[in-house]
Amino acid sequence: WGESTLFIRKLDIKEPERKIKISPLVISIFEKYIQKGCGSLEAGGIIIGKENLSNNDLVFVSATEPLKRDIRRKYRFHRKDKGHVTLFNRIYDESRQSHRYIGEWHTHPEKIPNYSGMDLKNWERIAKDLKNVEYFYHVIIGIDAYRIWQYDKDGKITLINTFYWKEHKLDEKNNWFKKRNTTNYTSNFML
Questions:
Q1: pLDDT for 107-149, tens place per residue?
Q2: How many other β-carbons are positioned within 10 Å of the β-carbon of residue 38?
Q3: Residue 138: exposed, middle, or buried by beta-carbon count in 10 A (0-12, 13-18, 19+)?
Q4: Those residues with Cβ within 8 angstroms of residue 101's Cβ, 6 or more apart along the chain or in another chain
Q5: Cβ distance 106 to 141 under 8 Å?
Q6: CA atoms within 13 Å, Cβ hemisphere of 24
Q7: Model pLDDT, residue 57
Q8: Residues with a known catalytic role
Q9: Which of 119, 168, 163 is nearest to 142 (CA)?
Q10: What average pLDDT does the segment 150-163 reach?
Q11: Buried/exposed 61-80: b ≥16 CB within 10 Å, e otherwise
Q12: Lower Cβ count inside 10 Å, N or C end of the chain?
């Protein structure tokens, strides 16, 4: 679980006050569950990360994958298996409490994903349960892109960014790179 084994380069998302860095491990988990076929089921889990207190950057370090007791349907994912929390607690303890809950991720069987009414109700429930958390993130994985939203404790939802799978990929060393001749959008890549 050490940082050096998780990522070398990170995909960065610029926000007004911070950068969000997503490790290749997390991206590879997202890619693994894209709903490509007509029989594919929604998948999801929690996002685990850490904050860099010196510069306010946030790093998505790890993510849980669907587990046996989760409910997976074509148009629904319900994180029901307690193994997600067990894994989070193990990572939290192994990191000496430096890693924390960042948010949730799940897939949608649509090209460019948008959150649903069911998603919004889930976000509201999570906000009520996490009394000491100012905001958290939700990532929805679509067929052509994935999107990241920030949800704050007052119920404000902010779309952080949309990332198109065809514009980026991991190389053989799990480094992110941007393909040439693609549309530019607000992100940058650390060298």
A1: 999 999 999 999 999 999 988 888 777 889 999 999 999 999 9
A2: 7
A3: buried
A4: 46, 47, 48, 88, 130, 133, 136
A5: yes
A6: 19
A7: 85
A8: 42
A9: 163
A10: 91
A11: bbbbebbeebebeeeebebe
A12: C
Q: Is pLDDT of 43 > 80?
A: yes
Pairing of strands 71-73, 11-14: unpaired
Closest CA to 40 of 124, 108, 141, 87: 108
CB 9 within 8 A of CB 176: yes
Q: What is the CA radius of gyration of the chain?
A: 16
| Pairwise CA distance, residues 8 & 2, whole Å | 11
Q: Give residue-wise pLDDT tens across range 65-105.
A: 999 999 999 999 999 999 999 999 999 999 988 899 999 99
Spatial CA neighbour of 94 closest among 3, 24, 14, 179: 3
Beta carbons of 177 and 168 less than 8 angstroms apart: yes
Higher-confidence position of 190 and 158: 158
